[in-house]
Amino acid sequence: xxxxxxxxxxxxxxxxxxxxxxxxxxxxxxxxxxxxxxxxxxxxxxxxxxxxxxxxxxxxxxxxxxxxxxxxxxxxxxxxxxxxxxxxxxxxxxxxxxxxxxxxxxxxxxxxxxxxxxxxxxxxxxxxxxxxxxxxxxxxxx
Length: 142
Known about the structure:
Helix content: over 70%
Distance between the termini: 37 Å
Oligomer: single chain
Number of strands: 0
Radius of gyration: 20 Å
Strand content: under 5%
Largest sheet: none
Order of helices and strands: HHHH
Structural class: mainly alpha
């Protein structure tokens, strides 16, 4: 498995970046009257996903990283809703909507996987810290 040195090495970030490109392309089809409404909202939500992955990773703190992943998941839910709105208003065809929602769902699953991995790592570190404190306080570790 390749070592993750940068957020750019994360597959979830790469997929989220492609999602941004696809959202920008799809949102070009929205009516000009939506430029400051739905178009802007969709683009901001899409950009927020890889941005929060990158910022959380760059902070080098699991708790902060987890918080940014939760924000990315919130942005993903917003984007999914906005795409559904575009479909219901007749701005997007069913095929475009289905394709975007599939991409969003893939990113969502990967975000949950990364979140779970970080939570398990936090639990393992906490467990080893508690064990060390217990061993030290009982004199078994000096």
